């Protein structure tokens, strides 16, 4: 069971998330509608994970994201899963791009909530310290960089492996998704990191290295 602080300004969605989390065996210790209340709830309840919308009152811009980053600067190991209505790669890279904190991080589109098993799996992975990125965000990042010279070095299969890898998946999960062997994944991953000149570190460092390349590579 995870103790969750939930921040979502849309009343119906907030109530739906509370019910979903409750039915899945978790406890929502606070459900709030703005970034200020989110900060207070975390200080009061010290949850296992924070689940927050990006856009919150009063400005409905990035208040939830900024609150999450501030909370991680004060609570180093606090896992945070951010939900967004739209693909906003700037928000994703701001959250995942080496900011403060060492706890798990996630950035998902709200549509992913409807895929209950996948959503709950992502919640659990973030709470366990992993990095989770929405597949659509990964797809957009890859599309933005397909013209870059290093990415053109990759074979079609290597690009598929890179896309799933950037979601924070293990080699076993990548193999299952693409219907290939784990040995093939290891081989493709090695080729990817060699061609892109990336550090082949395991775990979240590997994911963040991929993201750093996708958002920062230049001709």
Structural description of this entry:
The protein has about 220 residues and is of the alpha/beta class. It folds into 2 domains: about 5-135, Response regulator (Rossmann fold), CATH 3.40.50.2300; about 140-215, Orthogonal Bundle (Arc Repressor Mutant, subunit A), CATH 1.10.10.10. The protein contains 10 helices and 6 strands, in the order βαβαβαβαβαβααααα. α1 links the parallel β1 (about 5) and β2 (about 25-30). The protein is elongated, with a radius of gyration of 17 Å.
Low-confidence stretches: none
Oligomer: single chain
Give the biggest beta sheet.
6 strands, parallel
Straight-line distance between termini: 47 Å
Number of discrete helical segments: 10
CATH class group of the largest domain = Alpha Beta
Number of strands: 6
Rg, alpha carbons: 17 Å
Name of the CATH homologous superfamily of the largest domain: Response regulator
DSSP helix fraction: 40-55%
Shape: elongated
What's the number of domains?
A: 2
């Amino acid at each position: 069971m995870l103790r969750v602080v939930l921040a979502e300004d849309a009343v119906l969605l907030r109530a739906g998330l509370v019910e979903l989390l409750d039915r899945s065996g978790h406890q929502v210790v606070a459900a709030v509608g703005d970034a200020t209340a989110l900060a207070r709830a975390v200080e009061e309840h010290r949850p296992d994970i924070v689940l927050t919308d990006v856009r919150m009152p009063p400005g409905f811009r990035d208040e939830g994201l900024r609150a999450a980053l501030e909370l991680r600067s004060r609570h180093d190991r606090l896992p945070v899963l951010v939900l967004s209505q739209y693909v906003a790669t700037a928000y994703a890279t701001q959250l995942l791009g080496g900011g403060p904190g060492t706890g798990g991080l996630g950035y998902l589109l709200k549509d992913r909530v409807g895929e209950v098993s996948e959503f709950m799996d992502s919640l659990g992975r973030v709470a366990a310290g992993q990095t989770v990125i929405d597949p659509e965000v990964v797809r957009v990042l890859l599309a933005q960089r397909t013209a870059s010279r290093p990415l053109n070095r990759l074979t079609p299969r290597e690009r598929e492996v890179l896309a799933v890898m950037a979601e924070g998946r293990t080699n076993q999960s990548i193999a299952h998704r693409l219907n290939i062997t784990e040995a093939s994944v290891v081989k493709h991953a090695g080729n990817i990191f060699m061609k892109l000149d990336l550090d082949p570190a395991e775990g979240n460092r590997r994911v963040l290295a991929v993201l750093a390349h996708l958002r920062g590579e230049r001709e």
